[in-house]
Amino acid sequence: MRTAGARTFAMTDIISYAPEHFEGVDRLWSEAFPDDPPWNRADAAIPAKMKVQPDLLLVAVEDGTVAGSIMAGYDGHRGWLYAVAVLKTHQRRGIGAALVREAELRLQALGCTKVNLQVRSTNASVVGFYKELGYAVEERVSLGKCLPTCTGSPR
Ligand SMILES: CC(C)(COP(=O)(O)OP(=O)(O)OC[C@H]1O[C@@H](n2cnc3c(N)ncnc32)[C@H](O)[C@@H]1OP(=O)(O)O)[C@@H](O)C(=O)NCCC(=O)NCCS
Predict the structure, then answer these.
(1) Residue nearest to atom 20 of ligand 1 (CA)
(2) For residue 81, which atom of ligand 1 is closest to its CA?
(3) Which domain holds residue 106?
(4) Cβ pair 27, 66 in contact under 8 A
(5) CB 86 within 8 A of CB 100
(6) How many domains does the chain have?
(7) Probe ligand 1: pick from 129, 131, 135, 137, max atoms within 8 Å of CB?
(8) What ranges make up the beta strands (E) of 11-154?
(9) Considering the domain boundaries, does residue 22 fall inside one?
(10) Whose CA is nearest to atom 12 of ligand 1?
């Protein structure tokens, strides 16, 4: 796996998202997050991300196929991870781990010292994946609020 830097593992590139990846990411997110609301879909989330830290939307590309994705953000205090997904046909080959590691490196380069993420209670089985990567479950209650500019109820 190759990354945009020098680390090479197999034939999967971990690179910054580019417009040519849109259809692949859209397909990936439809498969990985079938119940997500419209405001999380690629046609809404990707243009918004391209305006803020666009280099923190990464894709894993293998033989021209978008096999994985991750979205990260750094707010000056904490880093956050979103949209971690790998095609079912490509899972358990280390692509998810490589995406998280590359996002961590890019967050670290921005000065980030701690990374947070949320897992839906309906998706608890994925916690094992993050634990393998050194993440720990922290006792928190997750809250959210839609600002007046919301057109829906983004989560
Ligand atoms: C979670 C996900 C991104 C993992 O991607 P992946 O490429 O299969 O993960 P990796 O191959 O890098 O896994 C690394 C290690 O994490 C652990 N792991 C991976 N998936 C796991 C799972 N579903 N449950 C428990 N442990 C898991 C394993 O220890 C694995 O190593 P191993 O295969 O040698 O045993 C992928 O399963 C996925 O896209 N799921 C659907 C979308 C999703 O739920 N995303 C998370 C939203 S919070």
Answers:
(1) 129
(2) 48
(3) 2-132
(4) yes
(5) no
(6) 1
(7) 129
(8) 12-16, 57-62, 65-74, 79-86, 115-117
(9) yes
(10) 94
Q: Is there a domain that residue 149 lies in?
A: no
- The tens digit of pLDDT for each residue in 3-37 reads 554 344 458 999 999 999 999 999 999 999 999 98
Locate tokens 């393998």: which residue?
132
Ligand 1 pocket, CB under 6 A: 32, 84-86, 91-97, 119, 123, 125-126, 128-129, 132
Helix (H) or strand (E) holding 43: helix 42-49
Q: What is the CATH number of the domain that holds 78?
A: 3.40.630.30
Q: Provide CB contacts within 8 A for 31, sequence distance 6+.
A: 85, 87, 88
Is-above-0.85 flag for pTM? yes
Q: Does the residue 154 lie in any domain?
A: no
